[in-house]
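User: structure tokens for Elongator complex protein 4, please.
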Amino acid sequence: MYHSFKRNTNISKYFQQQKTVNFGIPSLDNLINGNIQEGSLILIKEDKDSKLHLFIQNIFIAECISNEYEVSIFSRDVEFPCIPDKITENELINEKEEKMVFAWRYNHLNPPITKMKYDLTKKMNLNDKKNLKIFYDTKLLTSTILENIKNVNRNSVISIYSFLSPLWFHFDKISDEEIYKFLFSLRKTIKETKSVCLVSIPSFFKENIHFNLYFDIIFNLKSFLFTNICPNYSCILNIEKMVPPFGLKENDLDSLKYGILIKRNNMVVEKVVLPPEDIVGVETTSCSTNITNQF
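Assistant: Done. Predicted tokens:
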């Protein structure tokens, strides 16, 4: 039978040539699976009770600096971000890894990389990083951010720390209309320059603003501090949106909720398995029962 449909190989070749950026957290990068392509905008909705977003944001910056991307940081809150330094070769050799025993039929497979190459207790020396620019000002304007982004080279990395935090309203008032205009212009500029932009926002201060239209990937962090909900995790990462820049790929994740474990020199993102809700009165060491609606 003759089929008139012909696969467009030019499109597939185009996507293969797309540059991708990693978070620097292997388990999270495996989860995203190459969705951070040029032109991507990522939003981290900050946790109300902690600063856990800074771990993800700082590791992301460390990874981009190490991979020699041109990086620009904008902030009213953080003057000198604590970017983690790489783990040295000697530390990697001396570190005792837990050995996993595989069945003989899986010996030919390489185990997935879950270990970070950054030490969260060590701070990277940023003075000699020529590919990094930090724009810190307690009166930083959205127009200043856009102006500087337009002047960066193509395929750059942009990171905005705690946009719309209380400092953004302390010195001047930014209206909802101005917020929408900025987000629209930011998205337009990032797409035009084929850059990647990561923004953290304490969205609980602006619950009336609809951020979903302006970002391709949205993470929502919740730590559930002072509760018995998921006590084994530092926080819960809820994926609210994950669409590649051109929207030609479906989301094939089997879960949208993941637990984050933070250790001295590692951060692990793993699927959260909730116990059945019909099991009442059974104590577990994972997430508590009857909490699905709290995510």
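User: Anything notable?

Assistant: The chain has one domain: 18-85+108-294.
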